[in-house]
User: Fold this.
Amino acid sequence: MTVDPKSMSCQEFQEQMSDLIGSGADLQDHPHLQGCDLCRALLNDLETIAEAARQLFPIQQPEEDLWERIESAIKQEDGSAIPE
Amino acid sequence: MPRSRFQKQSPEASQSEPVKEAESVVQLRDPAPEVPLPQPLSPEAEILARAQAGDHHAFAHLYSLHKRRIYSLCLRMVGNVAEAEDLTQEAFLQLHRKIATFRGDSAFSTWLHRLSINVVLMHLRKKGLPLMSLDEAMEPSYDDGPGRSFGAPDLSLTGSIDRLALERAVAALPAGYRLIFVLHDVEGFEHNEIAAMLDCSVGNSKSQLHKARLKLRDALRISLRKGGRR
Assistant:
């Protein structure tokens, strides 16, 4: 059963939130948010987290000796010498 | 003993491959004019082709091109440096075993990315981690119902999330939540792709992601309170 957005409870709105965040829909205009500061704050935070995750995570560098470990394991699997 | 894929092919070896000779003869005899000439390979495609042919130096080059992305992926998914290095090693070993099967149906980086995710998922399953039921199995008291994590609406995270705080919060997530969050919000996979990878429903993937974000929100708000507003 579809719930009327205007008469939605916080729980009903939040159940839809996971579908709607990141879907491209503009949730800020949702009727429930017009009268609910708590859900608006929650939505803003979750959108901020999703956006931050896309932007903030850096690319990290593995230890220098990792290639030597991989090379050694490959050599063992192949059972042959790796050319210099 | 089978020839190592790392041994360079000698000119003599390539001459002893009648199939390739026959192919080149066909091309010479029937140069269909409407068929476009083969485009020269890009530098990375050339490295890939050489690695597929067993050139060890080309494989080492592929490693140097992709190691940061694969290591970072593993690190985000498991949240532990030593484990992430072991998984990166396993991913490149798998790559070495399977590189000849890459047919170019997708970009090589995408193919390697998926291969690496599978390595991590296999690892987590071997550890006995129930990937998709952590909310019930590990945190029976967790309740994300309305109002539970709201707090004061004026304590907004907008503009206040820094990298370290987010990294710490993600690392502290239960493994199942972290996995979904990283795959969706960081790596950009769609719910249907995640559901296929983890053998769960799309609804389950969405629900887990929502709970992961709620937990992150709680952790970040606590961090914000401790650190004070900037």
Remarks:
- Chain B touches chain A through 58 residues (CB under 8 Å).
- The mean pLDDT of chain B is 76.
- The CA atoms of residues 180 and 209 of chain B lie 6 Å apart.
